Structure formats: structure tokens, C-alpha cells
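Instructor's aside before we start: the two examples that follow are unrelated to each other. I chose them only because their records fit on one page, so don't look for a connection. First example below.
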Amino acid sequence: MWRVLRPGGRMIILEIFHASFEAVQAVVLFLLPPSAAGCRRVLLAVQCLQVLPDSVLEFPSQEEFSGMIAEAGFRNVHLHELTFGIATIYVGEKV
């Protein structure tokens, strides 16, 4: 992203699920498998069932990911939690 943004450009990332509350995480993990039907042509539904929960659980924490964005050279990095942290919007500016 750094390469394609102009100076002053804003990077925005929507990260789904890294809920702050364990109960919310349990509910989301329970609901993830039915959403695998939407993967149709990209992956087989069986592969989606395995890939989605694994990738969600291995995503860095909000603090770690914000740090990674800052290490990449973005400034004014901040995040907005949505729906109790089930989704998070990360924003950073290229200086």
C-alpha cells in the first residue's frame, strides 16, 4: 500500500473480528462456518470452513497491527472498533 499511495494519502483497512470480549469471539466463531457458503468460486466450502477461523485467530492483536502499520512508515495511525471489536477500522496516513 505504501508504494501506491501519494504523500498525504490515507490507508484504511477493515479487519473483521478480533473481538475484545471472549463471549463475542465464541459467538462469532460459532457463526463463521455457515458463512463459508459465500466462498463459492474462490474456495471449496470445506476449505473455507478451515481457512476462515484459522486466519481470524492468527491475525495480530489491535496493538500489534497498529504497530506494524506505524513500522511500515504510516503516521497518525488510529483505529475505530465497531460492534464490540468484531470489526476494526485502521487508518494511517502516508507522510
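Example two begins here.
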Amino acid sequence: MSAFEAVISTVAAVATVIGLPVAFLALRRTPNGKYSPKRTAATFRQVRRELKSVYDRGRLESVANKAQRKYLLVEDVPLLVKPGWIAEAPLRLDAVRPDWKTPEKAKQDADFEPALEFASRCLAGSGQLGNTYHKVIKLLERPDERLFFNGSSFRLLDVAVGQESESSEKFPVTLTFTAGWYFDALDTTDVLGYETAALGLSPRRLDHWRKMRGPYRRWLGDPFNLQKRCAIPGVNTLTIRLGEPAPTFILHERNLQNATSQGVTHVAPAGEFQPRDQSTLASIVDLDLWNNITREYAEELLGLSEARDQPPGLRLNARLDEVASALDDARARRDIDVWYLGVGLDPLTWKPEILTVAVFKPDVFDTIFRDIVTENDEGKLMFPDAGSTRMTPFTEDNVKPSFRDRLLPAGAACLELAWRYRGEMGIRD
């Protein structure tokens, strides 16, 4: 054994005794200057465990909030925003104009090349395992391919407040999108969470960790510059059923089979903003937030196969059509009111999150979701009473403190704003 190897062995033994993460040692190169695939895999798994642990993720989010407090412009809303991004009062979803920018595929690929290069540096020499975040996840974690594939998606480019459209019609909010792909979002946006978690494992880098100063995040610079990376927004909908003695709402606990945001609690339904057919490039034809929400209702509350043509074998069926039609008809009759609350960035990953609320009349909810499930592909719905599908009362005691330690920031924002604007949305506590 060389002197160098002896030193490394001694350090490893001491680190184990005093509790330093073994994964930190995996960041070191071997004597020949190359990264060890075994050590690299250990590092990656350790960092991913940090992201999957509800406790550790909460700690990371707390660091992200403190380091970026200048962007937390709305009290008790844990999302990074620009002025006007959170609506001063709830808006009907029809007041939000989705705009479309035709993508230039060759230019888009070129735009992402610098981001992919910088992002790959925070994967601890994972070139021997894969040079992008999604490749290493796929190799080491083998996620369910029904949920983890490179689906076509809508990439957010801009959020504009109070601008006129080409037809001179003024919309309170215009969201501009182009085509994107899910793996590009993982590799250029979600990887920011990995970078920060990795910094926290190194005693020498704790100051960078506290200040959120990973090299990739520093290179991106402005969190609101959506041109340098692929930022696919989540569409998050808090579902509220009116009724006596109090309105009720539902939350969803995500399981460990998901590639991101495992083990946390979130509003339901929620999902990436994606076209119906994720096997082809996203286009203006499917650019509709409500259609996205209806598909998520079918998947998360009724457990139906995802309403898309990818992966092969999953096709729209009569039940899905029935659910979509029932939701459309109820919304047209105003038996469902759908509200837009705003958009913000997750502080840890800088992922955009669109915040909405759907308020159901009780008989309509009970009819459409008569077969509501307790579990779906991504986790389980949360009901306060075992063996019952009665939802959680929408009261201050339940909304304010109860779930906050496990909620994703976007879910916490939905609950906070819904409670704040409950009167404007016709929700009486």
C-alpha cells in the first residue's frame, strides 16, 4: 500500500468513527488522478438520500430560503418571485393567457450545452456513470420507466403581468412557453438541488452551502433568467370541496418510486405541464392549463392510466373521456371554479411552479370522484380517518401548521394563498 493510500485509509476510518459522511471521501480522486466509479456511485447515492429524506430536504429548503430571502417577496409564500408574479387577488384561470413561441431545435440544443457542461461538474466525476443527472439516476436507481422517461413538455420562457396580446386584448397574466423535454429539465434545473445537497456533505464547503453558492448556480446567476436552462413548470392544484360543516381539501404523499420529490406531501392533483401526447414535440395545440389539470385529476384521484400516448400501450379510454367531459361540463356551469394564484420558483431547484385552486360544489365532486382511490402510481392520497375517504377540513388549524414540515414549497404556497383569499373564492370557513 502506498503512503497516499495509507493516509486515505486512515482518514476513512476516522471519518466513520466521528460520523463524517463517507460520501465526502468519495469526492476525492484516486492516486492516478481519476474518479473511482465505486466511490462516485457512493457519493451520488448519499446525496440523493439527502434529497429524498423529508428531514434533510426540509433542512436544505431552509438554507435555500435564508440564502435567497431577497426573492421571497410575499409573506409566508416560500417561493422565489418577481413583483407581480403572485396575484394580488385570485384570478379566474381564463384570465391567464398561455402564449407560444415556436422552438428552434438546433438553437435550443446549443443554448443548453453550456448549462449541461457546468451541471455535469457537480456530479462528482460521474462521467464514468453518465454525464448528465438523468443518466446517473437511471443507471443507479432504475426508476419506474412508466414515470421516468423523456416526455415532451412545455418549457416556461417568461411571465408577464398586465401586457396586451397581439389582438390588443389585455390579460392580467401572460405565460410564454416553448417546447421542451423532461430530461433537459432534470439535467439543467432539478440538478441544482443535487448540487446544493452535495455541498452540504463537505465540511470545507459549508460556507458555500449556506450561501447557495455552488458553481452551477453561480454560473446561472439570475434565477429568473429562463433562457439558459430548461424550466418546465409544475401545475399545482389545491382541490377544495365545499360543504358543511366546513369545506374540505386533499393532499397527496409521494412515494419513493418517483425520481424527484420523494416522500413529501403535496397538493393534489399536481404534475408537469405536458401535452397529451408526450412522444411528440409539444405544440400550441395542447397549450392548455385546464386540460393538464383534468388529466392529473384522472391519474391522481381516480388512479387511471396516464392520459398520454407514451409509453406505448397507454391510450385514452372511455373512462378518461368521461371524466374529462364531466369536468369540462361542470366548469362551464360554474359548478367548478378554477383560480390562478400566481407562479414562483422553488428555492432549492429553481423549478417554476404554477399555483391554482379548484373549488367544487359538493354534489359535483361526489359524482365525478365517486370512485376516488386511496393510492395511485405516485403515492397515496391522505385522508384523516383510516378506511374513509372523507377529506381534511379546510380550517385554520389544518391549513396553517399541520402539514408544513412535509409540504413541498409549492403546496405550502397554494394552501397559504387559498386560505388568505378564501372569501374571494367563495370558500366559507
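The chain is about 35% helix and 20% strand.
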